[in-house]
Design a protein that fits this description.
heterodimer, A: MetI-like fold, 12 helices, B: about 290 residues, mainly alpha
Chain lengths: ~260, ~290
Amino acid sequence: MRFLAIAILAAVMLASLFAPRLAPYAYDAQFRETPNAPASRIFPMGTDDIGRDRFSRLLYGTRVSILLAPAAACVSIVLALLISVPAASRVPGVGLAVSGLTTICLSLPWLFLFIILRAKLPLNTDPSTSVLLTFGLMGVAGWAWPARVFAAAIREIRQSGWLLQAQAAGIPPWRIALLYGLPHLRSIAAAQFRVLVPAYILSEASLGLLGLGVSDPMPSWGNLLQDLQHPDIVRANPWILAPLALLVIVMICLELLQSPPEASL
Amino acid sequence: MTLRPLADAGRRVFRSLLNLVLVVLLGGFAAAALVRYSPGFDVDENSWNPRISADTLAALHARHEQANQLLPFYLHYLRAAAQGDFGQSDSYRVPVSELLHDRAPVSAKLIGWGVAGGLSFGLALAWLSVWPRRAVLSIATASVSGLLLAIPSAVLALAFFFAEAPLSIAVALTILPRVFGTLRALLEELYSSSALLAARARGIPPWVLGIRYVLRPAAPQLMAVAGVAFVLAFGSIIPIEALCDVPGIGQLAWKAALSRDLPLLSGLALIITFVVAFVQMTGDLLAGERN
């Protein structure tokens, strides 16, 4: 199952990477004479209400969602690592303050925290800025949980025997951190990355549906799902469900990769 | 000897309360800073009045500047918030507390039913996965949970809305896959306990086993899971209420974000932070007490 999941994810990723070559049209190319056209040889999934090819938009939208969610997860992990160092600090007050800040961020539902930050920034931005804002803010807003995990791991490392040995051997702190500390955190970072990527893909989808994500004409899974709000259009052209189907398939594949190999059989 | 557990419990309650106060103070600071630095906050309408003399204008400006320094503003904001005054909404032109008063019951009902449903469905699914000890059921329940986890809550909400089904079930189904793993692990641990095996061997009926040997010992962890479920429900009501036109706090937050109504968002953030932190603290405390 894991192999199948990896194969599907690789195929989706390749298709999205080569979207400009695979897509028959540009994502914003309009065919005004054929709005809401059904699936045909010219438009494999039909067209949307302003005559844009749904298939081309799905390919480009997949690229936005599937490539930028990992980038946002990387931002969260780097931020979490930077913040977790003072959080695990022995300096009185510093650890408590960072821990308090982490607790606040965790107390506020994630989506709510995101929309507060999003509201602070301009809503009417050009599409590429909206993409950067959406995924950049996800990265910034999602630091709290990994930071807590990293802080706990750093505290554990501090009490380990090998650290005492390394300190006793006179190895400089930066060398201990770089050569011994970071490899210990790498597996935790990888686990957090595997959790954050699907979470960000889902969040982008919800935000796009709410009109707070990537803005038109740039497609993303989130804004492609907006058509689901019109059941009559969905009934007329079931291909509208394609972004949702692809999202669910990718999410299931990512879930399979999260579980240990023996559990995913 | 008998006073020691009491003292421990007291210390735990004190530490939790201190944590709650710290969270509220820091949350209040963040909310006040958000309002203070919102666009147009510094604009004083009197400065456009041509009948005001330059001296009066300078005096007004100085007073305005002093009152609007972050720390005095924060203290003023916190004092007013403690009295239930969270300022005025920019977009609705009514006090934030009034908006909350009207909308909180709607969201509370949705969250309450959602959390209860999510935990019940989660427990039922976890029980099906563990108790009959059949691989097919275990795979099927994990698949259901995995599928639900793969669907955005907003899409679930739309499906329920168009099917005219209760939206609290959509909230419950959003919570279910996120608590299923924990509940399954908990039940697995309890079902393999020697006490339960002995009781099973004595032929005690399954429902008695379920209550006495599973639900009762699992109560502390269930309370902690309920706290997590509450946070999840709060997060899920934003897309559900916004897309399904439910006049609750989630819809209010969404509208405030779209209209960049920062005073309203700040008030909501402060209240939600307090409520969530309080519920989590209560859950953790009760779980600790039972342990």
